[in-house]
């Protein structure tokens, strides 16, 4: 499905009218007739026609239709391709003016995606979500500002001097997939090159689990870091510590929700954080922290018993000299009020480095 950007100033679109009818009258038609119908639609309407028909989804991703859109839209700046299996053509040159490209749930031949990543010189925003057909991508785009990748692929940036926001958050399950992904991270050394210029970096839990064997340079421009795993286990703690030490100008730190269920095997009770630091970012820059605090369920106790690992939170409070706001989020329970008090009492056992910090537990 191809979705060029449409103006909101127009009246009701063709797709909106058909959707309102709440019926699919096209699935029974032969494919040549569907092609003919699309050819009569204005190019923006044809691209936006998720007319609730499965046949159209396969039709709209057709190579001929892509070429027709390219030839009739020389000034197209925003393009979205969804739910398509694209044939292995070798060039993306027809869409040379595209600045915003979104690829969702598509099978993409390596030649096609590599052509996008090296020849779309005006491209500023690239989103690759749930796509497959390739394992690694070399990105060489001089104007790229935002890169979001939630597919099981690794990315290496070269000759991309302007990255401001990068999100790497693939989702998959299974030890073999994780092992293969870790090997790709190590093989291509993805955290070298222009990625170190980024200002906002978001790393999902699967990426975090693969960073133990990957070298990291200094992220001098990084002001916001989002990680998808709370550092309770040894591997996660080492990686988070390494990221903090290599981000001297970090201002915002977010520890997001982790899809991995925590248990005793992800928690190690020792004095790791008591011996870490000091880091430059904690001394001079880190002002805002948001943390999703996980519950730890010991394997040798009843499943209803749990506790909170606050070692990392205490480390941040003790060492962040200019911290202004810390927000801690926990999963709601019927004992939420009591648990907040327990967490606050625990955190008050250490001396906070910043006298102006506002602590919120929600």
UniProtKB/TrEMBL annotation:
It holds the Pfam family FBD. This is FBD domain-containing protein. InterPro entries: FBD, FBL13/AtMIF1-like, LRR_dom_sf. Residues 280-362 form the FBD domain. Gene3D superfamilies: Ribonuclease Inhibitor (3.80.10.10).
């Amino acid at each position: 499905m191809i979705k060029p950007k449409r103006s909101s100033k127009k009246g009701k679109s063709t797709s909106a009218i058909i959707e309102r009818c709440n019926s699919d009258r096209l699935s029974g038609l032969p494919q040549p007739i569907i092609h003919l119908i699309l050819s009569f639609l204005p190019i923006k309407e044809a691209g936006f026609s998720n007319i609730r028909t499965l046949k159209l989804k396969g039709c709209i991703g057709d190579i001929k239709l892509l070429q027709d859109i390219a030839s009739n839209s020389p000034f197209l700046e925003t393009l979205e391709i969804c739910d398509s299996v694209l044939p292995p053509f070798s060039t993306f040159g027809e869409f040379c003016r595209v600045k915003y490209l979104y690829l969702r749930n598509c099978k993409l031949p390596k030649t096609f995606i590599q052509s996008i990543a090296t020849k779309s010189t005006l491209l500023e925003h690239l989103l690759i979500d749930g796509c497959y057909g390739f394992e690694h991508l070399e990105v060489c785009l001089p104007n790229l500002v935002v890169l979001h990748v939630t597919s099981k692929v690794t990315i290496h940036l070269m000759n991309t001097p302007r990255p401001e926001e990068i999100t790497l958050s693939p989702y998959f399950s299974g030890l073999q997939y994780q092992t293969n992904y870790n090997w790709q991270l190590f093989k291509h050394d993805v955290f070298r090159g222009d990625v170190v210029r980024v200002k906002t970096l978001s790393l999902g839990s699967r990426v975090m689990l693969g960073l133990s064997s990957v070298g990291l340079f200094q992220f001098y421009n990084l002001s916001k870091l989002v990680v998808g795993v709370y550092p309770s286990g040894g591997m996660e703690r080492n990686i988070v510590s390494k990221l903090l030490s290599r981000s001297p100008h970090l201002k915002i730190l977010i520890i997001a929700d982790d899809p991995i269920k925590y248990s005793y095997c992800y928690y190690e009770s020792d004095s790791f954080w008591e011996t870490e630091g000091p880091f430059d970012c904690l001394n001079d820059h880190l002002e805002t922290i948001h943390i999703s605090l996980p519950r730890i369920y010991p394997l040798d106790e009843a499943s209803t018993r749990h506790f909170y690992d606050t070692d990392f939170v205490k480390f941040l409070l003790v060492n962040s000299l200019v911290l202004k706001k810390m927000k801690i989020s926990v999963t709601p329970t019927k004992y939420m009020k009591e648990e907040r008090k327990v967490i606050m009492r625990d955190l008050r056992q250490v001396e906070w480095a910043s006298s102006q910090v506002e602590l919120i537990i929600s």
